[in-house]
Structures are given as C-alpha cells and as structure tokens.
Amino acid sequence: MTREEPETRGEDMMIDAPKFTNPKPRIENPDEFNVHYLRIYYGKLFPYTDIHKWLSYGHDGKHPGCDEFYFGRREFSFTLENDVYLRYKSFKNASAMEDAIKVNFPYKIDIGAVYSVDPDKRHAYAQSGTNVFTPVERELVFDIDITDYDDVRYCCSGADVCSKCWPLMTVAIKVIDTSLREDFGFKHILWVFSGRRGVHCWVCDVKARRLTNEQRSAVAEYFRVYKGNENNARKVALMGHSLHPFLARSYVDFLKDFFEGELQANQSIFSSKEKYEKILEMISDEDIQLELREKWENAARSSLSEEATSLARWEQLKNTLYSKKQKAPSLRMCVEEIVFTFTYPRIDLEVSKQMNHLLKAPFCVHPKTGRVCVPIDPKKCDEFDPLAVPTLSQLIEEINSGGLKMDVDDDDESERSLLGKSVSFFRSSFLEPLLKSCKEDIESSHKSNIDKSKDSFSW
Amino acid sequence: MEVIRSQKRTASNDAASIPTLPLYFTAPPMEVRLEEFELFAIDRLRVLKGVSDGLARGKNPKEMDDLVSTLWKEHMRHSDVSEMLNKDIISHFVLRLVYCRSDELKKWFLSMETALFRHRFRLQNFEAQRATVGEFGLQYKAVTGAELESLKEKLGQVVRSLGQISPTIETIYYKVPFEEVPDLVAGRRVFIQKGNAFVAGSQLVSLVVTQFRSHISKALILTNRKWTTTIREREKDRLTPIVEGLSSSYLGPDYSQSNEYADISLKDIDQVAKSSFPLCMRHLFEKLREDHHLKHGGRMQLGLFLKGVGLKLEDALAFWRAEFTKKVGSEKFDKEYAYSIRHNYGKEGKRTDYTPYACQKIISSAPGVGDHHGCPYRHFSDDNLRAALGRMGLSSRGMEDVMDKVRNKHYQLACTMTFEAVYGTTCDAGINHPNQYFEESQKILKPKTPTAPV
Fold this sequence. Notes:
The complex is a heterodimer of chains A (459) and B (454).
Chain A: H1 10-16, H2 35-45, H3 48-56, E1 74-79, E2 85-89, H4 94-104, E3 108-115, E4 135-137, E5 140-145, H5 167-182, E6 189-193, E7 198-203, H6 206-209, H7 213-222, H8 245-267, H9 273-280, H10 286-297, H11 306-324, H12 334-343, H13 349-353, E8 359-360, E9 375-376, H14 392-401, H15 418-455
Helix pairs in contact in A: 2-14, 3-4, 5-8, 8-12
Chain B: E1 2-4, E2 31-33, H1 34-56, H2 61-76, H3 81-99, H4 103-123, H5 126-135, E3 141-143, H6 145-161, E4 173-177, H7 182-186, E5 191-193, E6 196-200, H8 204-234, H9 239-248, H10 269-276, H11 279-291, H12 296-309, H13 313-328, H14 330-344, H15 359-363, H16 376-379, H17 382-392, H18 396-407, H19 411-423, H20 434-445
Parallel strand pairs in B: 1-2
Antiparallel strand pairs in B: 3-4, 4-6, 5-6
Helix pairs in contact in B: 1-2, 1-3, 1-4, 1-9, 2-4, 3-4, 3-9, 4-8, 13-14, 18-19
Organism (chain A): Microthlaspi erraticum
Family (chain A): Belongs to the eukaryotic-type primase small subunit family.
Pfam family, one (chain A): DNA_primase_S
C-alpha cells in the first residue's frame, strides 16, 4: 500500500476511538466485567460458529467455486489484559479461532480486512512486485458514537448515555439504514450495539466488500452534513434552494418529527439562556438574533413547563425565520439547519474510509460496562434500550441458576436465554439471507468462469 | 515508440481517425528525435507546473479551464494539427518514464495529468465529449422516456440543491453504478437509487476523469516495472540521464530536509511559535499548550511541520511528552504516542521519512469535532478568524484585506497577505507551504549571509 500518510494502525485506533478523558484503562466495574466472567463467556457463550459462518461468506469448501482459504486471509486483532495489542492475527478455520480466543481471553476482538495473503505470513511477501500484502475485501462499516453529540445533549456528556439521549442513536440508525437500502441498494446490513454509547454498522453485500477506499470515502462524504468543531458556530450549512432528495427524505420521514417531539421533550433546548444562545448563534442574521433574544430574555415568568416553553420558542423562531428567509441565502434553510444540527447522524468518517481500519467484533463484551455487543434490529430500533442489554454478570447468573436452556436453537422464544435471543436474531435476520445470497454469488461466478474458459478454448 | 538520432521523423498516423483528446492508451509506433524527446517533455512539464500552481492558488474550475487553455497554447501549440497531437502524445509518454520512478513523483504526475485532462475535456464541445466517453468503452445507459419522467421531481430537487432556482433538468441523463462516480456521490451532486446514480450530461466530466485517473495510475505502475527492469540499464548512456534530469528541477522544495535555519531548540520554541509560525501551526501549538492534547490530525500536521522546521527526534519526543503527560501520564504516552512520533521521523514501521504537509493538503483536510488542524482561513468562522488575526497583530485595515481574500476562497493568498502585514514586506512567490512561511519569516527576523540552499 503506497500512500503518503502513515497506515491506519491499531495504535491509532486505540488512541482516538475511546473518547474518554479518564486516561487509565482499568476495569471500572469489577462486578460487571472481570477476567473470570470473561473466561466463562468465551468458554460457553460466544457464538464462534455463527461468526465463522458470517465471515466465510459461503466459502465453506463445499462448492467447487469456493475459496477455502478465504477465511484464513482475514485479519483479526486481540486486545489483552494490560493493553497488550496483537495485530495481524488470522485463523485457518472456526476451531483455530476458537482455540486462540480461549487461550488469550481477549478484552476486545477487532475484525479487519480480508487480505491478498494470510496476514500471519505477510512478511514472506515483498512489498513491491505482484505479491503485495494488500486488503482485497472489507465490509463497508460505520461507527456512530454519542460523544460526538456532546454539544447538543444536555442530559449526559462523555461516556454516559441515558434514555433521554439514546434516541439520537435510534434516529441515526433509521436515517443511515434507509439510505443504505434505498439509495445504495444494499441488503445485508448488520447493526450492532457498541457496548456502551454507540452503534456500529456492517454492510456485507459483496459489492460493499469490494469497494475501494475512494468509493468508501464517497459514501461517507455523502452521509456527512455536520462540519463542526469549536472553531465555528454554524456547524451545518445547507446551501442551494432545496435539500438533496436524501436529506429531504431524512428530514421529512425522521428528523423533523424527532426534533419537535422526543428531542424537545428530553432536552428542552430553548428553556434556558445558555441553551438558546447556542441556537441563536446558528442564525447568521444579527437582527433576527436580537429580535428573538429580546423576546425571550424579557419573558415574564410563565407557568409553562420547561418543555412547553421550549416548544413555544421553537414556533416563534420558525415563524420569524420563515417570514425573513428572503433576506439572505444563508437564512433560506436555517430552520432545517438547526434541526439537522441537533438530530442528523454524525458518523466517524475515518472509520469508514479505509479498508484496513479495524472495528470491534459483534458479541464482544465491553470492558467498561460488561455489556455484550449485541445486534440491533433496525426495524425495531425504537425499542432498543442500551441499559437493558445483558451484562456478563447477568449471563453468568443465568447459567448458574440453570433454569433456561443454553441451546439457542430452541424454537420457543420464551425458553431462550438472554444471549440466545440475540444470537437467534443474528441468525435468522442477517446470517441466513446473507449466506443464501453468497451461495448464489459463488454459484454464478463459478458458472461464468467455466463458460469463459470454454469460450477461450482453442487449439 | 522508438527514439532515433538526427533522422527525419516519419509519423504513421491516420488523420481521419484521430480523436481530439488523446487518452494515451498505447505508445504509438512513431520515431522521435532525441532532441525532441527532451524538448517536448520540458514543454509539457511547463504546462503541468502551471496547472499545479493554479490549483495551489485555489483557482475555481472556470479559471482553471482558462489557465489550461492558455498554457496549452503557449507551450504545446504547433501549426500542423497532427504535429501538435504527436507532441502531446510523445511528451506524455516521456514524462511517464520520468515520473514513474517513485511514489511521490507518481502521485504528483497523476494529479496534474488528471487535472489537465479534466480541463481539456471541459473545454471540448458536447459531441467531442461524447466521443471521448465512448473511447473509454463506457457502457452507460441513457435514461429516457417513462423512466426519466418518473424521476423528474427528484432530479429537479438535486438541481435546486446545487444552487439553481429553477428545477429544470437536463435532457440527457445517464444511469451509472454509483461506484463509477465517487466524487459526484460524495458531493451529493447526483440522485441515487438502488445503487444507481443518475448523472447529467454536463456531469460526464466526473465519469471520464475517474476512468482516466485509474488508467494512468495502472500505467505508471507498469512503466515503473519496465523502467527498473530493462529500460534504465539499457538506456544508461542515452535516455536515462535525460529522464533523471527532468524531474528534479521542477518540484518545489518539500522541506523534508531542513536547512541552515534548522536548530530550533525547545527553550525557544514558544518564542519562535509566536514570531514565525503561520496561523495554522500557531493555532495548533497554542491549543496543545492549552489542552495538553491534540487529536490525530493535529498531531500529524503540527508534528511534521516541526520536523521540517528542524526539531530533532529527541527534542520532538521531549516536547510532545512534556505536554501530553500533563494529561495522560508518561506510561500511556510511551505506549501510545511515542511510536507515532518516531514513525513520522522514519524510525518505525515502513521507515518512510514523511514530508510536512503543503497548504493544498491542509486546506483540503476535514477537521471534525474536537479537531484543530486544517487551514484557519478556510475552516474557522469569521469571528474566530478575526480574533486569531488580531492576536497576530493585524490592524483592522490589514484584516479586511485578508477577510476579503477569504470570502473569495483564496486561502493561500489570505495567508500571504497576513505574512505581508505581519512582517511589513511583500511576498511575491505566495505562500504554498507552512514551512516556507516559517523560513521566509526567519530570513527576515534573523538575516544571515545568503548561502546556497541545501
């Protein structure tokens, strides 16, 4: 890989991804997460076969068109106790992977790209020439972390998350998921809880896996709206005379109602001077700012609740802006800009742009919370509660009490264990349709290879 | 392509089938005089350098079209049309030899040739453009009739979102897999549905440029292989010296090796930052002192700049450690940050000695939440920029001049004006690299007897 910037390294991901200010990565909740529990989890609960089936994408060696070495060319990385970081790990098959995990009991497992050669053996190949060590396939991935929204949530900040701000993740899932399916035509999409305060998205269609870095970058930029940091006040700038159809659909179907409903109820973003000043700053016209500021500063103490006050002020702001929108181009879509600033998804662009970027594996356990990184059903994401996700200690408790069957293949859902429900969802909603489609792909490309070789047959 | 000495050239090309814009797929079977080999290449290099300059100055696409037209007329024209085409093709292939030889050369050549191609394509009329698209063997389906009708509203929305008031759409649209037009997708300049992008006729440029870039990129790799395995040795008395001479004179200094203004010591660094750093680096430096932390983008931009300024590895480690350990502890620093610093100096991993970022790269970066890198003239809000310029000592008159440049998106000219205002001198060359700003500044503050540059 010949690029000017240094390669994305695991160390880099370690440095920027956990956005906590507390520098000591010690176990915070020893009751929820400890080595002993982790051993039991990886001993009895982690779904090795499912993960292997997923990442094999149908290359199970049973069809002549299969690439039996495909799984072995996938990079994994382990983060062990004491922050020891092992990169470029690869496994021949599911049991090799299982053995390695049961030897190391990693605190975190990351999944990387499928490379041109086995990552373990990369040094055997020269950097130049035809056998270069380079990524050839990788899911299109997205990482949304609620700390990127700290400037627009008032209930929590930093590592915390609660029922008042989690809905930001819900609406992000809806917007991105809809676009991936409707606009880009992707079908095999897995959403996963990151374990503490965010979500990851894995797009596994074969077209997605073969996207180049440039194409991934294009998709990430297509999703990018928020361009803020502490150096600028107007963090969303919607130009032109109307919204692009993607943004328009997101606004009409998801963002507007969320802003005027749940967000206002949870965050009351106009109820105090400090809060509404932030919004007034987003209006590029000083006169309008003044007009509204005066109205609100001098408001008599009313009997309205915080939420009602907030809503009333929003109405006033909208009316003022709509009536004055001809004044300047930057006011044209100011109302929408405000809504987008508070609600539109903020993805971590760097995660999506490069094939060699590693991302945490589903069904890992988050060391800070002890919660399992379970899949989220995008069709029911409103019901997902991050604070109700099973923790290690709950899972262990369940095993000890011996009541429920551990077998996840049980058809009776009520008999299924806490984790079993998630694994079952993973299988039925994601894995099965995916594998079916992979088989078709392998079949058809095998067939066309045969046809091609027939055509070029000449004496 | 055969190179021969002092014989009359015979061009074997069929005038009727020449496309107006060559795509350089194969080297044509021509014979070329040795003198022309070098001269043609030099003329084309002048064009490419002009393109590079225009981009660095932040010219918009229309201005670049005009620039390319001027440059081409000035350096590549010939009274005989087929001679002109020959020169075009020959010069391109010679420069491929010159610029295939390292990653940095390849990258520059690829960028400039692609930009050149883009603007020459834009200057063509519609029929010629269609012909060029066809030359690439692109099979894009035109969207017509009922399908176009059903998409009218969405296509109109896209047109309006790009600034046009009236939602009238063009007459011809092409349905193309979204992967083929990444820059249009990235800019939300097309409507996409189920994986297909609907590209307007006028947006064809993007399609072809992507194809062109990809083809030249692959060609450069092959050329490099041929060069290193056979050509360089075989031509060592004839073409190789010419080829090796051609590239070194035309790239600006990359500041990876610092010169005699090198020794900035840690105890002076605060002083030097205040007096000689360009705004982008000053901001990063101040934020580092304030927060005792910088995110990755900032560490790269500032760290490489400091390397270019002459900060030795040991001093760099001490500098970053002194700041970061105020926040993260020295153990974590050693484990997580020291590696990157040594990596930047070429002491780890690939052992590439990374070069400090030029303005073009910094301007086109995308600072996000919590970032402080990028170009303040582009990325700061007006108020923040004014405040920062005030701290640099600009008068309100000087500030207005700078802000005017910013409004017109001439970020590097804004920085140049700041330089001129701060030091009370003119800078004709124009700032296009933060290390250049630093060196020019040091020249003024600490004049020494001029010595030949390293």
